[in-house]
Amino acid sequence: MAYKIAVLPGDGIGVEVMREALKVLDRVASKFGVEFEFKEALIGGAAIDAKQDAFPDETKEVCDWADAILFGAVGGPKWENLPPEKQPERAALLPIRKRYGLFANLRPAIVFPALIEASPLKKEILGDKGFDILVVRELTGGIYFGTPKGIFEEDGKRKGIDTLIYYDWEIERIARVAFEAAGKRRKKVASIDKANVLNAMVLWRDVVNEVAKGYPDIELSHYLVDNAAMQLIRNPHQFDVILAGNMFGDILSDEAAMLTGSIGMLPSASVNESKKGLYEPVHGSAPDIAGQNAANPCAMILSAAMMLRYSFDLEDAAKAVEKAVESVLNEGFRTKDLYTGKEGEILVGTSEMGDRIAERI
Ligand code: NAD
């Protein structure tokens, strides 16, 4: 059976980093005896240019067909003056998330030992082993979508309203994703809430506790969001999987990402109940370095590794890709964004970085 993959390179460096991820997947196919079927389609600015639509019908068909979607990046100065709803990011990413009900957003924040100096954290805090945290964020509910929502007039005064709603089934399904992920890692879940002041978060804590009963080998702890924000900086090592609702997850995943210090290294996944997923680097299309063979392909390659793990259950292959990235970094190879000029570092371009990672698998 072939795993079906929609390949959406998009714009700018999206195209360059996607090429390297495909190189790595080809290698995975031959090393692990699995078969991938790829179909490429236009997305974002490239699709606007060709089809006047950031997510055209042909691309929808390819995504419907696929088991998983690999997404590069979209956007750039050429499309910046379009109305907000036609902007490549908004008109491409949001409809994909909605079409496939991608309710679980997974964002690892990993500091590889070879890149410890990129982290803004002090050495005393970080130690010499780096850290590896996975933020599991609920993506389709919570205060960003609850109604009533809007700015209303009342007695001649304006009031802004957003509504925080979580249904028990929404909490339950995202909690399951976090517990399952923790089972493949260090077996710890830190659930984030604000149960001291918010009713929806009292329910959150309650449902997470119920779900935890089905996972007796996973250690669960609860953090109030303000404390979690501090603890991430004070001692990131205490975290394995962080489970959070939409808004708290939005904020904490960016905080955790910042602690790694290198945007070119950060992958992400958004998945639904049937394990269909969208896999994309956290970074954008980087127009400032596009076309120069200078982009770091690691975030895209690590996103492909997440696809192997979460959509295809190919854990060994996923680990092999992650290990290959780590080995190449340990050997000193650095793209421009990571290069500091220190002894032992070797500056390489996008394609050479991809070649080396593929070779190590
Ligand atoms: P960006 O992530 O594209 O770039 C920020 C900075 O990081 C730039 O200096 C860039 O050169 C650098 N950088 C990013 N990825 C890198 C990589 N892999 N290797 C080396 N350096 C890298 O963010 P931006 O500049 O704010 O946005 C540029 C365009 O991308 C905009 O049009 C924006 O809307 C779009 N964008 C798209 C996505 C997405 O597709 N999901 C996400 C963010 C931004």
Describe the structure.
The chain is α/β, with parallel strands linked by helices and 361 residues long. The protein folds into 2 domains: 1-108 and 267-361, Isopropylmalate Dehydrogenase, CATH 3.40.718; 120-260, 3-Layer(aba) Sandwich (Isopropylmalate Dehydrogenase), CATH 3.40.718.10. It contains 12 helices and 14 strands. The strands form 3 sheets. It has a 10-stranded mixed beta sheet with strand order 2-1-3-12-11-4-5-10-8-9, sandwiched between helices. Strands 6-7 form a two-stranded antiparallel sheet. The structure holds nicotinamide-adenine-dinucleotide.
Give the radius of gyration.
21 Å
Task: Assign the CATH architecture of the largest domain.
Answer: 3-Layer(aba) Sandwich
List the ions, cofactors and other small molecules found in this model.
nicotinamide-adenine-dinucleotide
The span between the termini is: 22 Å
CATH T-level fold name of the largest domain: Isopropylmalate Dehydrogenase
Amount of beta strand: 15-25%
Note the main sheet. 10 strands, mixed
Shape category: globular
Q: Supply the helix-strand structural class.
A: alpha/beta
Query: Quick one: CATH superfamily of the largest domain?
Result: Isopropylmalate Dehydrogenase
By DSSP (H or I, 4+ residues per run), the number of helices equals: 12
Number of strands: 14
> SSE order, as H and E?
EHEHHEHEHEEEHEHEHEHEEHHEEH
Low-confidence blocks of residues = none
Mean pLDDT comes to 96
Instruction: Give the neighbour order of strands across the main sheet.
Output: 2-1-3-12-11-4-5-10-8-9
Supply the CATH class of the largest domain. Alpha Beta
User: How helix-rich are the residues, as a percent range?
Assistant: 40-55%
